[in-house]
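<amino_acid_chain>
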Amino acid sequence: MVTRSMLISLVSFIHDYSSIHLYTSLLTVHTPFTSYVGMMGYSYSQDDTRMCFNGPKSYQAGWYNTNYNGYATFTYSQAAQENTKLIGQVDYPSVNQDIVVIKIETGTSTDYFIHFNRAVDANSGTKEGANQVLITSAGNNGLSYAKSTLLVKLSAGGTYTLSLTEGDVEVTVNSIDTSASVGYADISISTGTEAPSKSPSSSPSMSPTTKAPSKSPSSSPSASPTISEAPSKTPTPPPSKSPTLKPTLAPTPSPIPCTLAKIDQSCSTGSDCCSGLCTGGNPRNRVCYSNTPTTPAPVAPSTPAPVAPPTTQPPVTSPPVGSCSPWKGQCSNNSDCCSNDCKRNGTCN
């Protein structure tokens, strides 16, 4: 007859069978080999315990990527993650495609794994860290047979700092909800202080890089002071050129003299005049004129001889409308003059 004591504990069997591929789980805060989390933790003489594997073993097994990828991997540069929802292995797959295990890459073969140890159904018999967020380290990048070590168990409000080669990463548990139909832990991951780029420089570069004095003080003064045959040349040639030879060209060539009739000379039409303007009226009296007033050349002051008081002449007035101005009468154009000849000085000819 087979007695109970002859039966092999189911938990021990799974632990030992799985150890062919999955290394034992340890805990840093207990003595070695006393992590109670998951099937690869400390074994019990019980044949009805319901437990799942821990985070690294679940990651290595690769069971949570059939319906969707329940794994997430972050490097230091990607580690700023706000309000990430973690569900337990027992609730995979979820409608919202939530994460089961987060892997934090450290830049070495030993990485960190974060999972929510939801204590229901197939994991209702977990012996440690029930309904807490667990952070575990494992070697071989969590991809093959390697020891895993439980680092911390976090409840709501808990934080834990991980050290990566690039700097620190802080894990914070914002909240844990076990009353929902799919229990979850809401966590945030943030980067902290960066690690020094490297150690302050690989020790002093060697003995002071200065070599011994190249040789004795240098082989005496190079020779007697080199005397140039004569000062190289005059101090330097005078300024490239004198400030500019002369004003580039003469101030502008003088205008070509006009050979046509000048102002007040006789003309028949404007084409006879240098100014292009010829008065109208009697052809015998026509002269060239200019439409711009000419400024008389300045005359040196002289003491005028006494002059008899000027005789008052009646003012010259413009001709009334419908009449013409007589000789020396005021005009503005030829049509104002009876002679049909208005001189440039504004009087009729």
